């Protein structure tokens, strides 16, 4: 059995996720259920989700059953009563931990990635680890587990609670926020530990105790070797993938040839675009993902200004509620959609909206500032649907896209985290590649459809994870 501990989980119900990590963990869950892999994923249940959509979380509650109730104890804060809510699909089980009492503890799982203090953040993720340790000990049994996967570094409290010889830590981002830290005083107060360094880097704890570290693209090996060179003997790359049955439109499951592909893509586009409130035969270009500076959302806004009405644009995503840049860009997205007839805004982006955006598109854009993206999976979801990407050379893109054959590449291939304020000279090449794409997106999209399916499939990823 594999047990995954994660801060977020994006299923087809609810809004218990913020972005790529949660969606990826959801894909692993569905793939495990389909492939018959004994798999459990444990996360917190966030009553207000990520963007305060309590109705979406009520939908999730309607699909889970209360499996167990227990108490966990903090040295400083005392006892906390929790319930374990289970969602089961074939051989896969998702466990959502919900705090019942006391009131102070209920704030910990109120909203994803939103905390009022460092102490609250510390106890939120310690709660996840303590609840996971108790569930594994009392319900699953440590002797039945092949691997415990710590997604990102927040669950790295778990090895401080319980020794296990087969922890793995999966590092999902090269950026600083992928290596969270806490003041050493919290560890002294809660555990009695006196770490020789302050702050305490959670990724360092995870890598120190793990039998293996996993990064999510080959390019990330270079990043991690600069930050954690003393752990490189145990780190390998398993490039991310997507659950094809979840993301590919059913009409594309059996494509005979290019003509059949074009006919089906046109039908899918028309149907999906209509569900987004638009009817048009113009080419559709999309930018839909988490709205943050390193993903360069300003590229798509400049493109809208310059291409004007010749193209339909789908834009959207989520910004962290405390990130000024993202919030301002989200406002601009809404403003563009409200004042231009050729722009569709997809708010928030739940799983269904993301599917519609992909299925409606002729060209997908993938624009991270090279060096900052760990893998990226939106271009994979587009590719398996025959929607080619114009992509920067970042994340897993160089492993999959061949320029001018199954997509288009632009910009430098950097393996260092340059400041986001660095002069960015890549827009003109991006626009040039967009214009190329507008001339033959069906032919290149067909090549993407043919070439993405094997490598980008969860079947490949789960084989590598289970071995």
From TrEMBL:
Transmembrane segments: none annotated. One of its GO terms (molecular function) is glycosyltransferase activity. Residues 270-414 form the Glycosyl transferase family domain. It holds the Pfam family Glycos_transf_1. This is Glycosyltransferase. It comes from Sulfurisphaera javensis. The lineage of its organism: Archaea, Thermoproteota, Thermoprotei, Sulfolobales, Sulfolobaceae.
């Amino acid at each position: 059995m594999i047990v995954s501990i994660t801060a977020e989980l994006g299923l087809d119900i609810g809004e218990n996720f913020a972005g790529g990590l949660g969606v990826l963990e959801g894909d692993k869950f569905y793939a495990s259920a389909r492939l018959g892999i004994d798999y459990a994923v444990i996360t917190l249940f966030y009553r207000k989700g990520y963007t305060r959509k309590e109705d979406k979380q009520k939908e999730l509650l309607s699909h889970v059953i209360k499996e167990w109730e227990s108490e966990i104890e903090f040295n400083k804060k005392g006892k906390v009563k929790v319930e374990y809510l289970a969602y089961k699909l074939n051989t896969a089980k998702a466990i959502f931990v919900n705090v019942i009492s006391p009131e102070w503890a209920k704030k910990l799982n109120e909203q994803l990635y939103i905390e009022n203090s460092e102490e609250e953040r510390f106890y939120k993720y310690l709660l996840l680890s303590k609840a996971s340790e108790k569930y594994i000990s009392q319900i699953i049994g440590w002797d039945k587990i092949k691997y415990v996967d710590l997604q990102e570094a927040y669950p790295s409290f778990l090895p401080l609670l319980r020794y296990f010889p087969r922890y793995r830590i999966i590092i999902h981002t090269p950026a600083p926020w992928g290596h969270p830290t806490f003041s050493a005083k919290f560890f002294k107060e809660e555990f009695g530990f006196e770490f020789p360094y302050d702050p305490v880097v959670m990724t360092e704890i995870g890598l120190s105790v793990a039998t293996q570290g996993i990064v999510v693209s080959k390019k990330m090996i270079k990043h991690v070797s600069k930050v954690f060179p003393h752990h490189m003997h145990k780190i390998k790359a398993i490039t991310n993938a997507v659950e094809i049955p979840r993301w590919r439109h059913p009409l594309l499951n059996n494509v005979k040839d290019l003509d059949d592909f074009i006919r089906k893509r046109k039908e899918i586009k028309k149907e999906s675009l209509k569900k987004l409130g638009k009817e048009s035969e113009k080419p559709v270009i999309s930018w839909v993902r988490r709205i943050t500076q390193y993903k360069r959302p300003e590229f798509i806004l400049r493109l809208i200004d310059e291409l004007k009405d010749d193209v339909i644009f789908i834009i959207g995503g989520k910004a962290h509620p405390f990130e000024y840049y993202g919030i301002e860009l989200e406002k601009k997205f809404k403003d563009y959609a409200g004042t231009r007839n050729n722009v569709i805004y997809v708010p928030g982006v739940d799983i269904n909206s993301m599917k519609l955006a992909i299925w409606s598109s002729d060209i997908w854009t993938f624009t991270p500032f090279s060096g900052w993206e760990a893998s990226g999976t939106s271009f994979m979801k587009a590719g398996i649907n025959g929607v080619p990407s114009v992509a920067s050379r970042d994340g897993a893109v160089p492993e999959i896209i061949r320029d001018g054959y199954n997509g288009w590449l632009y910009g430098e291939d950097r393996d260092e985290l340059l400041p986001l304020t660095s002069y960015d000279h890549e827009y003109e090449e991006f626009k040039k590649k967009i214009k190329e794409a507008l001339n033959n997106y069906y032919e290149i999209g067909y090549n993407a459809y043919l070439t993405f399916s094997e490598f980008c499939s969860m079947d490949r990823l789960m084989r590598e994870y289970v071995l």
